[in-house]
Amino acid sequence: MSTVMDIQQVLKLLPHRYPFLLIDRVLSYTPAQSLTALKNVTCNEPFFPGHFPQRPVMPGVLIVEAMAQATGLLAYAGSQAQSANPGLYYLVGIDDARFKQPVQPGDQLIIEVVLERNMRDVWKFNGTAKVDGKLAASAVILCARGKDEVD
């Protein structure tokens, strides 16, 4: 099953808001398996004036954060059917982060996350971020549901 989410559905699932919401749309997802999301990178991003004024580049940590938000969406989307209160999912680890090319204003960042496994409430995902089909960044992302957020 592949489904799409517009920004209104993304806002219902993720607790992030401007300027820290880094997902504009979900292009497709298969619950408990994978998700593909889109981030339109514009010249109006609040980080560009400081990173860097003469040649704006999206910070790598924010690319990883966009991947982490995509993993949260995948986790939330799966838990929505099971619970009225999916709780909060926290980033608990990043492994093997690699950055291959800069992301700049005008780029469309396509974020893909694949669930590798879930053990003891820790979810492990492989994530990639691409621009024009070329790999910009990749990372292994670990998330966990907050202990204080149980139903």
Structure description:
The model has no long low-confidence stretch (mean pLDDT 91). The longest helix has 21 residues, at 60-80. The protein starts with a strand and ends in a 6-residue tail after the last strand. The chain is 19% helix and 40% strand. It has a single domain (3-149), classed as Hotdog Thioesterase (Thiol Ester Dehydrase, Chain A, Roll). The radius of gyration is 15 Å and the shape is globular. It has a seven-stranded antiparallel sheet with strand order 1-2-3-5-6-7-4. With 151 residues, the chain is α+β, with helices and mostly antiparallel strands. The protein has helices at 7-13, 60-80, and strands at residues 3-5, 25-30, 34-40, 89-99, 108-119, 122-131, 134-145.
Question: Helix and strand string, N-terminal first?
Answer: EHEEHEEEE
Sheet/helix structural class: alpha+beta
Question: What's the tally of helices?
Answer: 2
Tell me, rounded to a whole number, the average pLDDT: 91
CATH superfamily: Hotdog Thioesterase
Approximate helicity band: 10-25%
Counted up, domains total 1
User: What is the name of the CATH topology?
Assistant: Thiol Ester Dehydrase, Chain A
General shape: globular
- End-to-end distance, in Å? 27 Å
* Adjacency order of strands in the biggest sheet: 1-2-3-5-6-7-4
C-alpha Rg (nearest Å):
15 Å
Q: What is the class in the CATH system? A: Alpha Beta
Report the strand count.
7
